[in-house]
Amino acid sequence: xxxxxxxxxxxxxxxxxxxxxxxxxxxxxxxxxxxxxxxxxxxxxxxxxxxxxxxxxxxxxxxxxxxxxxxxxxxxxxxxxxxxxxxxxxxxxxxxxxxxxxxxxxxxxxxxxxxxxxxxxxxxxxxxxxxxxxxxxxxxxxxxxxxxxxxxxxxxxxxxxxxxxxxxxxxxxxxxxxxxxxxxxxxxxxxxxxxxxxxxxxxxxxxxxxxxxxxxxxxxxxxxxxxxxxxxxxxxxxxxxxxxxxxxxxxxxxxxxx
Length: 258
Fold this sequence. Notes:
Shape: globular
Mean pLDDT: 94
Distance between the termini: 12 Å
Number of strands: 18
CATH class: Mainly Beta
Strand order of the largest sheet: 1-13-12-16-15-14-18
CATH superfamily: PK beta-barrel domain-like
CATH architecture: Beta Barrel
Structural class: mainly beta
Helix content: 10-25%
Number of domains: 1
């Protein structure tokens, strides 16, 4: 038995970890993620860690896209660099003020990064964690979010900007229902286009949702609202069950538990 889960209203991929991503009309869901998603990261040459906007919020001021299979990074001043190599590393290092390099997620060991124990306090203890191998993702490879959850957050903190860009989902599903709808999808199959994903756990939010980015101001109350009212969760981490093509406008069908 399947029921309507709404319609895919937006689709993103993020070529470089913690940089702005690409808003797409169509995408391939590979067996481990959206094609091209978080295949690259910026590595601190001194610590070996992959930088994220948890520790370096200025990363969100840059953007990444692809030309063919090469990552293109657009810096905050509008300059662009293409692909890995010395020129790119020099430009990124100058921008960030420390030696860094653009590296592929499949070029070696799983990426290491840091997060703050208190998402509202950048002076709190930083803890290192290791990402899954092959992509610089935090947990499962696909993040699904609904417009219902955005409305729920906005009702609780109406002064905040509950823009979906703040939450860096891959798939945004427009639904008519109210509440934290996607929580009820965990363990079930979502069919869209020729693909299917299975939500496996709620996404535990962190400092990232408080960070400023182009068009959005810093707002720690976004995280505090989620912590007070929804266990700090927003959206669901999901695995790809059936690879295929998805497109904005696809109907999303919620299947039986799997």
